[in-house]
Amino acid sequence: MDIALIIESIQTLLGGVVLTLELTILSLLIGFVLSVPLAFMRASRSPWLSWPVLAYTYVFRGTPLLVQLFLIYYGLGQLAFVRESFLWLLFRDPFYCALLAFSLNSAAYTIEVFRGGIQSVPPGLVEAAQAIGLSPTKISLRIVFPLAFRTVLPSYANEVVGMIKASSLASTVTLLEITGLARKLVSETFAPYEVFIAAGAIYLGLTFLASRLFNLIELHLSGAPPDKARRPWLLKLRQAL
Amino acid sequence: MQKLMLALALPFALAATMGLAPAFAQEPMKVTIATEGSSPPWNSTDSTGKLIGFDVDLGYELCRRMGATCTFVAQDWDGIIPALTVGKYDAIMGGMSITEKRKKTIDFSMPYAVGFNQIVMRKGLGLPPTDAKAKLNLTQMAASKQATIDTLRTALSGRTLGVLRSSNSEVVVNELFGKVATIRSYDTNENMTMDVAAGRVDGTLADFFVLKTFLESKDGDVAEFYGPMLNGGPWGPGAGIGIRKTDPQLKAAFDKAIASANEDGAIKALTEKWFGMDMSPPK
Fold first, then answer.
1. Is the ipTM beyond the 0.90 threshold?
2. Cα A5 versus chain centre, distance
3. How much of chain B exceeds pLDDT 90, in percent?
4. Where in chain B is the domain with CATH 3.40.190.10?
5. What is the rounded distance in angstroms from the CA atom of residue A222 to the CA atom of residue A54?
6. B2-114+237-275 is classed CATH 3.40.190.10
7. Chain B residues with CB inside 8 Å of A172's CB?
8. For chain A, what are the domain ranges?
């Protein structure tokens, strides 16, 4: 094993971190925005609201992300009417194909995570809110969702970490994010061992940062008093918030 | 007990002293040859699962000249060199270019055929016309060749080119056009030509016959050959038979057979049968 080559590879691969983060963060944001209303629909007692969303999450959670990405990238590119429409401006670019696949996939998982949280909110709280005359929208956004979010935060953190790792699939549609750059480097150096160790180390760093961030959010939302001696900065952060 | 052992050992000892070696030499040499099996017309698999193609025909012809008994087996491209080095078979005949990189791991016979590569560009890009029938060898760069390359470089600047990852074409494209064009690397030739057809990339550089098959397919009419047929340079002197470095006798036998088949026109005839043109190596 060539330690110098690993260090050199890490330097080259850091150039792909921006694209990896762009893909991950945008996909998670779009997935989040889509999933909040859809999670309420999914948790609804009405089958007319619940079943279409169930069909969506069933399909997107039941098929591999790589297959979804290939269907969007290579599949849509085969259809003449897509190529001739304005949509081609987006689908021509591998970045938007990957972003669409990742967002739809992430939304599907996030919907099911949030649905679990919404259904775990005690009905008594909702009844109390109704009794004081809050509108259904207000109840959803101010009572149910915050409680649900806090309950499912650890599961949502899993989804975030999963998305960071899944973004490596973008390399299969010619994008040069961390994994794409690694594969390029391997074909130049014939040293897959060192290069992929370097790539793995960078992903490990990113997922470590993400899980630390969610630990802090969890701690903050739980309302536990921070340990002043060990984490004076957390106290300051909380006061600032 | 000791007597029994002696009795058992005796025939072996006798055989060894009485010259088993010439007896072995008269028995035909057995050679197992691997090929990839999905790169027509070099090599492919017919509907019954039998390996066919130029590599297979020439392989049997060379073995006939060597007085050897040969068997062909199929092996995926990415593992074809490692499996040779660990001894799963004795030789590779898969249209494999003799390159300096590969020569670090295995030995090659002399070239048995010289293929070439070409650029394909989508039609309607408004590119200046070129002579797609011309030939250009990248090994020795003369001034006139450099002028052709410079013209190509100007024509392709700002374009997007697809290449097969880890291929020699990728090396050439990066070297010649890496500074002026956007380069995208693909896992397979099929995915790459699909994106040429879809218009995600403007063109590509790859093996001439791979691209010819694409241009003749139903999606292929959107593109055409562009610029001269290329070989030499990173592609090396041609396709050779891959042999373990520890097997110099086999290399010598193949070299002798290739030289004789090239001399009497057998290679020329087989390339014309499979490729429709003479691709025999220089004599």
1. no
2. 32
3. 59
4. 2-114+237-275, 117-235
5. 31
6. yes
7. 187
8. 3-240
Phi-psi bin for A130: left (phi > 0), alpha (psi -120 to 50), beta? Answer: alpha
Q: Which of B162, B187, B194 sits opposite A77 (nearest CB)?
A: B194
Report DSSP letters for A110-179, one per residue. Answer: HHHHHHHHHHTS-HHHHHHHHHTT--HHHIIIIIIHHHHHHHHHHHHHHHHHHHHHHGGGGGGGT--SHH
At B208-241, the pLDDT tens digits run: 988 998 999 888 999 999 999 998 888 889 999 9
Which chain A residues touch B198 with a CB distance below 8 Å?
77-78, 83, 92
B101, B185, B199 ranked by CB distance to A174: nearest: B185
* Residue reference for tokens 């099929």: B190
User: pTM for the complete prediction?
Assistant: 0.76
Per residue in A35-61, pLDDT (tens digit) is 999 999 999 999 999 999 999 999 999
CATH H superfamily, domain B117-235: Periplasmic binding protein-like II (3.40.190.10)
CATH architecture, range A3-240: Orthogonal Bundle (1.10)
Q: Which one of A82, A173, A174, A187 would you mutate to disrupt binding with B, by most B Cβ within 10 Å of its Cβ?
A: A174
Chain A interface, mutation test: which of B81, B170, B200, B222, most A Cβ atoms within 10 Å?
B200
Among chain A, residues having any CB pair with chain B shorter than 8 Å are 74, 77-78, 83, 92, 94, 172, 174, 183-184, 186-187, 190
